[in-house]
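Suppose a colleague, Dr. K., hands you the sequence of a protein chain of 188 amino acids and asks what its three-dimensional shape might be. Before reaching for any lab equipment, you can write down a predicted structure in token form. Begin with the sequence itself:
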Amino acid sequence: MNVRYRTRGIILEAKDQREADRAFSVLTKEFGLVVLWAISCRKIASKLRGGLCALSCSDIEFVQGKNRKTVTDARLVSLHPISHNLEGLRAAMRMAKTLTLLLPAEDPDERVWELALRSLQGCADVREPKEGRVAYYGFFWNMMDLLGYGVSRDIRAALSGASGLSLAQERDIAAATKDRFHAILIRS
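The predicted structure, expressed as tokens, is then:
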């Protein structure tokens, strides 16, 4: 008999599989980052279709099968208002991609959950490209700090006064972020 699990999660990524299935990367408070399969969720009459929107917070029920976790029920809790804001959506998508790349599978961390929830909600206030970059870099370095990689004082100081950065300073932060990110991925 399969055990049913119920949790609240943030849908980070969706990948189409086969004819009507979809695989979702979901960040949950209790299970960490999990990959869940939704069978036939791309069909028009699917009951799962409305509860599994990208970058939304949903109550999800799933079962652990032989090879994968399968979604049995999903209810939308909140859809972040970033879908009406291109710059906020861009920052949120970058945050979601970073979470899926950096987090280990099924390793729950309440601090990461809180940071992700707070950061994605903050993307609704982003109106300009510069604000989106500042929101993303702030999230990224807080994430690095939570994962144990630490943040240099120069970058932390630059981020604390980020609203007044020149374009050259933003490029320097972006270059440092990119180099450090690639170094972390190589070590993993």
